[in-house]
Amino acid sequence: SVTPQQSGQHKLSITIHDQDIQGSPFDLSVVTQRDYTKLKDPVQIITAITGPRYIAFSDNGDMFVTITIYWEHCIHVYDSSGKKKTTIGSRGSGELQFQSPHGIAISGEVVYVAEYTGHRIHKLTTR
Questions:
Q1: Which among 1, 40, 76, 115 is least surrounded, fewest beta carbons within 10 Å?
Q2: CA count, 13 A, side-chain hemisphere, 58
Q3: What percentage of the chain exceeds 70 in pLDDT?
Q4: Given strand 52-57, what is the order of strands in its sheet?
């Protein structure tokens, strides 16, 4: 076990019984680890969100929050300053309707939403 002491580009050579393994040396990129044990007071708190479940961030900084409460099953979208931009969907089993949206992931301009109760995965896009 080796822990790199410097960030940056490195070469990693691996040998077994004095023989380099195939492909060795390998290019290795080491990045500085963030120390989350030293978090300070929140920079921002978004209030008045009832029933937030999961969040995901788009490339432009928008935050998507899944909401699962008795009367509201939807996705709220906030800009990077915390201002609500829009709500996507409602409770139900039709198009753009959710039944307990739990998981959310964003890849480029595509938003994936997994429903717990509805047993579906939605693929939403801005195009």
A1: 1
A2: 18
A3: 98
A4: 52-57, 63-69, 72-78, 84-88
At residue 38, φ and ψ (nearest 5 deg) are -115, 30
Q: Which two tokens stand for residue 19?
A: 């023989």
What three-state secondary structure class fits 28? strand
Helices (H) and strands (E) in the chain, counts: 0, 13
Residue 89's CB is within 10 A of a number of other CB atoms, namely 21
Q: Does residue 51 sit in helix, strand or coil?
A: coil
Amino acid letter for position 112: Y
pLDDT in tens, 84-124: 999 999 999 999 999 999 889 999 999 999 999 999 999 99
Residue with tokens 């999961």: 54
Torsions phi, psi for 78 (to 5 deg): -120, 145
